[in-house]
Amino acid sequence: MDGNNLFVGLDIGTTKIVAMIGSLNEYNKLKIIGIGKSKSLGVHRGVVNNITQTIQSIQAAINEAEADSAEKIEQVIVGIAGQHIRSLQHSDYITRTNSDQVIDEDDLERLINQVYKLVMLPGEEIIHVLPQEYKVDGQGEIKEPIGMFGGRLEANFHVVVGQVSSIKNIARCIKSAGIDFEGITLEPIASSDAVLNQEEKEAGVALIDIGGGTTDLAIFKDGIIRHTSVIPFGGNVITEDIKEGCSIIEKQAELLKIKFGSAWPGENKENEIVSIPGLRGRDPKEITLKNLSKIIHARVVEIIEQVYIEIKNYGHEEQKKKLIGGIVLTGGGSQLKHLKQLVEYITGMDTRLGYPSEHLAGNNSIEISSPMYATAVGLVMNSTKVKRNNEDKNECETNNNNIESESEKVERTTVFERFTQSLKTFLDNAE
């Protein structure tokens, strides 16, 4: 297959690493042609803490995806999450020397570039700069300033910040696994591409992606991302609690959670019992399902309350910031029984489960449409956008080649590309 029609996303999670290969069919719909997953060793709460194990896990997932699709993976878009991610609001402006000319993309680029010069804490780097609303000469609430006249262009930005070392470690692992690094995306942004539609983003919606090590939140309103947050708890702490509370091994605790777990204790009767085989000839253990759901319930309530605090921090009670679309749950942890009802009960907001199938071609397998693959599908979709932008850019560059000077060309690379570029340079030098 043509390499330009191959799009690869790599989701490095705390419990699993997923490599997913997609291609566009004749109707421009995404078809997933290969998927590989491996147990994530060496990642804790979204942060790499063992390089060698992570490289092996990435290689295992990549090899499986290549065997599944009979294609060779060369480049990947990587999802980044983890407890080191934080976000902040920032306003900035530029003064245009030539206010008789209309505002164009170069002006927006210049404004975004300026935000990237923000002084961060030592060891931190800006990952995303997401414009919210623009102001032109003091006139506010402008979504698209291109084509307008004005001398002063200002905007509010949502800035996502992460630790350089964590990002470099991930990039290092990918490079060592023998793959090129195409770009990096915040995981909640990738998941939102896969499970939300434009109407929801306009109306206002909170996406909660419950993974193994972290729970990611992304809030959209008026079609723009307004708030992101990473909470350092996920499905693994629930498994840990079951293991401790019932005195069983981790593997059994995980199976119990998936098969019989419920977030609502009232659903189980007192006499419902599960028997678990004992270790090495010991007697089997009997566990009541009521007890099990009480353990799960306590921890899930804690996670949801944390998320709800973040939603309140965004200010959803204000009329202008109201989230009409309510909450969308996705990620592996969202498949817990009665979780939707519990979230509705705690937050008082409409809740649904988000499946990544609506943006895919119709003939994909059922497995892929599971919420646990939402991030991976979103990353593949992201890869299609990156490649399309690069193609458009190359076209423009070819057309403008004669007119544009070299220095102007350098200025035009987006900041995000520059960040990816600086990472690549760092890795090349580190070898």
Write up what this structure looks like.
The protein has 431 residues and is of the alpha+beta class. It is built from twelve helices and 18 strands. It has a domain of 65 residues: ATPase, nucleotide binding domain (Nucleotidyltransferase, domain 5), CATH 3.30.420. The chain is 39% helix and 27% strand. Helix 6 runs antiparallel to helix 8. The two termini are 32 Å apart.
Q: What portion of the residues fall into strands of 2 or more residues?
A: 25-35%
The CATH topology of one domain comes to Nucleotidyltransferase, domain 5
Class inferred from helices and paired strands: alpha+beta
- Helical content, roughly? 25-40%
Provide the gyration radius in Å.
Answer: 23 Å
Number of strands: 18
**What is the straight-line distance between the termini?**
32 Å
CATH class of one domain: Alpha Beta
Largest sheet: 5 strands, mixed
Overall spatial form:
globular
Low-confidence stretches: 403-413
Going by CATH, the homologous superfamily of one domain would be: ATPase, nucleotide binding domain
**Largest beta sheet: what is the strand line-up?**
3-2-1-6-11
CATH architecture of one domain: 2-Layer Sandwich
Average predicted local confidence, pLDDT = 86
Q: What's the tally of helices?
A: 12
Run of helices and strands: EEEEEHEEHEEEHEHHEEEHHEEHEHEHHH
